[in-house]
Sequence to fold (271 residues):
Amino acid sequence: MQPLIITAAICGAEVTRKDTPYVPYSPQELADEAIRCRAAGATMVHLHMREPDGAPSQRTALFAETVALIRGAGCDIILQFSTGGAVGMTVAERADALQLKPDMATLTTGSVNFGDDVFLNSPPMIRAIAARQRQFGVVPEIECFDTGMVDAAVRLMREGAIAAPGHFNFVLGMAGGMGATPAHLDFLRTLLPDGATWSVAGIGRHELPLAAHAIAVGGHVRVGLEDNLYVQKGVLAKGSYELVTATAELAQRAGRQLATIREARALLRLS
Ligand code: KMH
Ligand code: ZN
Fold:
């Protein structure tokens, strides 16, 4: 089995300090959290930005400051920027920071109801973000909130907008998207192009059970406060690093090695 890549999704766009006091906002807080997650076993960090008041942001200057702090501290974690941003942002806002050439960036390959909102990703929007990723040599992580997004990604591969076979992340359990059962995950896996890598991000209480399933069947795992606030029922995680630690413990019990940075970069086809 491949060594396990754990991605830490440390703040997202929706979680606020009203939900948990532990969500990082500032570049320094984001960098510190990324470094704690690396120490706990994460090989990749999925980054959103926040304005000082906590409002979701995709400002390139904030990404640049956060990356400088992470790298300045000698942390080698793989950097993955969000291009999803927050509901309602334009493609230009969402994709501006790709000019910083992170290792990876997300690419959601379809629209989905997102709570009471719609996370809009029309085919022209997806192609525009994919084109900017190609322009800056940024490898996409294909975010799938529903089955048709896998099929859409395969169509984009056929037309040359995304390189095959790709790396997919299934976000399961969000209100409006696919359910978060092992059966949903097992079905999604059957749709992937040969040679694709995949991870799962279970929302809320589904996070660690789906992580355990992915660890058992050879997939990779995303955890963190973007997706889930609790390390156990009723107990807030004091940071995404506690969720990374819990995932690393699941892997250890299952006999699955954690990927080194070098191994993760090779598996994800990063330069
Ligand atoms: N915040 C969501 C609307 C991504 O990072 O690419 C979109 C999202 C996906 O979080
Ligand atoms: Zn995200």
Notes: The pocket of zinc ion (ligand 2) is lined by residues 9, 12, 46, 48, 82, 84, 226 (CB under 6 Å). The longest strand covers residues 139-144.
